[in-house]
Design brief:
Elements (H helix, E strand, L loop, with lengths): L1 E6 L10 H11 L7 E8 L1 H12 L7 E5 L12 E6 H10 L4 H16 L7 H17 L20
Helix pairs in contact: 1-4, 3-4, 4-5
């Protein structure tokens, strides 16, 4: 059973539905879980920038941050960690990259969930594996390859 703890304290308009987040998280899972609780926090640029600065030493807001659960943390349910998504950055990037917002949201949630499951893109080989998996998952959900969509202009915001 999957439970999504969706936090949208800023009441951003246009945030995907809880069902969409559940679909994207479920599709991204590479293992079976009996009882998984997944936190997704939707934030503004200020909170994203603060977290990105504190945890990644990058002083700009970013689209998605993944905070894996440490093995030492004992909870009465399974939890891979937390995702923090910056709504204004997602909207801005979708527009700049000429992508449908829904497709960009789906990509970022799947990307973040793969990070929580140990995937990374620190080198070309890791990036190829992770991107291939993202493309495959997105395809099963009816979304296009996010790496081949025409980009209008380059974003000045830190990409994933």
């Amino acid at each position: 059973m999957l439970t999504i703890d969706l936090q949208n304290d800023n009441n951003f308009f246009g945030v995907p539905s809880l069902q969409e987040f559940e679909d994207w998280v479920s599709a991204s899972l590479q293992s079976k879980y009996d009882q998984l609780e997944q936190s997704i926090r939707i934030v503004d640029k200020a909170e994203s920038q603060t977290l990105n600065s504190s945890y990644r030493n990058s002083h700009e807001p970013t689209n998605v941050l993944s905070f894996p659960m440490s093995d030492e943390e004992l909870l009465p349910y399974q939890c891979l960690g937390d995702l923090v998504v910056c709504q204004p950055v997602v909207v801005q990037q979708a527009k700049e990259q000429n992508k449908p917002e829904q497709a960009h949201w789906a990509h970022l949630i799947i990307h973040g969930m793969l990070h929580l499951q140990g995937y990374d893109h620190n080198n070309d080989a890791e990036a190829a594996i992770m991107e291939s998996l993202e493309i495959k998952i997105l395809s099963t959900l009816g979304f296009s390859n996010p790496y081949t969509i025409n980009v209008k202009k380059q974003s000045t915001i830190t990409n994933i």
